[in-house]
Amino acid sequence: MRRTALLLLAALALLISGCSGDDGDEQRELAALAPVARDVTTQPDRDQTETERKLAALDPCLLFDAAVARKVGDPMDSRRYDSTHACRIGTSSTTTVKLAVALSDGARFYQGRHDAAGAVSYRTTSTKKYCTVSLPVTQSLAVEFNSWERRCTDTVAYAEAGARLLRTAPDRLLRPRDAGRFTACELLAPAVPERLQVDAGNWGQYSLDECTASTDGSMTATKARLFLDISDAEPREQNKIDGQCWTGFELPHARVPLDSALATNATLVTDTCAGTRRMIARVVAAARRTPPQVDPTGLLYDWSDDTTADLSSTGACADILDAAALECTPARPADVPADAADLLEQAEADPDVLCAAAAPLVRAWYGDTLAPATVLTATRAQQVEGAPLTECAFGEPTHSLHITVLASTQQQLLSEDEEISGHPATTSTSGDVEGVSPMRRFSIGWRTGKPGVLSVTVLATPTRAEGNWQGIEIDRTPVDEADGFVADLVEQLLD
């Protein structure tokens, strides 16, 4: 599309939203307006405790389908427990299923989103034949199938069959109602002081079979850890390792469904061996309780092309990079001032104004799939005093193009060596090396030698289709076209 046609299209759109205009007063000084309050919209999450109990009640080895195993060439008797809530199948090459792993909004953003037997799934692959298929169960957790040195199609087949079972016959996946249904944290919590914070996993790595008790959630403040494992070996004797006390014991009333010769063992790690036996007695007492009855239905999210119920982000924010950390919310309609100075002032205070002003040209250049949202310019912890608080971001469903636009009344260009559409400017480019995501940055001054800057970034990344960023060709076209896009944007917004 020729540049003149783009300008006509954008001008018409801006005219409809109330923007037409002449030059602002050359002598005018920009003023910082009070930021407009943003109503950040997120989707409610499922109950974490209830979901963990549903997952813990399942036998992970039953998620491997016999028909798929025959097709792949895995004997069903090659199934073996990695832990109470993880199982592996195969001989020379294997596939593992874990009943609960961490899967954040940020991780899902980079992975391919696919239909797995009617359920939402996320897929990531690599050139090293590593493949993971995750079935989200909350906004932060997922059932994960992963493999190494085997075709990703095999892993997908196992995951789809497992998803089908979870959706249509979850009762067939239940393990005996005994101590094996308890998570490590359900067993450790009664054994430590209430003042301690109990977290699933081990120093940031989420797991139903590991639990950490600490004063503040950090590694250095850890007071106790509990690990659950399935083994045919005797529990480890109490000994000191790296200054910590490690004590192993067998967990009572925790049968191993597929092999009666195996036992569920536990290992307690504490700062000192003093009081360890008392803690173990409390863990054992907790294991003797009858686990709560659970209904295993409704664990997965039903597949839909246009619904993202498994994310905390809503609307356009599902396609915005770092949406959760940047408190993203979909852009709302706003009136666009005709005067450039008014626009900069209002756009800095209210990012909805900036989105309304920039959206017509963004879509004219890059297509209607680009949707606007308002975000923080940096996380709360990284905010710089005096810098604009918010900006407008544009994303699209393939997650391969990311555009941000920011307005500032107080910032001033440090260099005015370049010019864009008659305005002083500075530009930079990164990612010229093959395999590195290319990005073009622009800072355009409102007036020469005066505060007032419009900043734009255009970033291209690999498509999320298969969740593979290794050896994937990146379409540089959006970045190569960025200079023309920004020139039109400057003419439309700053003149």
Strand order of the largest sheet: 14-15-16-17-21-20-19-18
Overall mean confidence score, pLDDT: 89
The helix/strand class is: alpha+beta
Q: Detail the poorly predicted runs.
A: 1-24
- Strand content range: 25-35%
Q: How many helices does DSSP assign?
A: 11
Work out the oligomeric state of the chains in this entry.
Answer: single chain
Described by strand count, sense and barrel closure, the largest sheet is: 8 strands, antiparallel
Q: What would you report as the Rg, rounded to the nearest angstrom?
A: 28 Å
* Total beta strands: 21
N-C termini distance: 23 Å
Give the overall shape, derived from the CA principal axes: elongated
Kindly state the percentage of residues in helix: 10-25%
Name the features.
single chain, 495 residues, alpha+beta, eight-stranded antiparallel sheet, 11 helices, 21 strands, elongated, disordered N terminus
Describe the protein's architecture and organization:
It contains eleven helices and 21 strands. The chain is an alpha+beta fold. A hairpin with a 2-residue loop joins strand 4 and strand 5. The N terminus is likely disordered.
Layout of helices and strands:
Blueprint: H1 3-16, H2 48-56, H3 66-72, E1 80-83, E2 86-90, E3 94-102, H4 105-110, E4 112-116, E5 119-125, E6 130-136, E7 141-148, H5 152-168, H6 184-188, E8 197-200, E9 210-214, E10 222-231, E11 239-241, E12 244-250, E13 263-270, H7 276-287, E14 329-330, H8 340-349, H9 351-366, E15 371-376, E16 390-395, E17 401-408, E18 418-420, E19 423-430, E20 439-445, E21 453-460, H10 477-480, H11 482-494
Antiparallel strand pairs: 1-2, 2-3, 3-7, 4-5, 5-6, 6-7, 8-9, 9-10, 10-13, 11-12, 12-13, 14-15, 15-16, 16-17, 17-21, 18-19, 19-20, 20-21
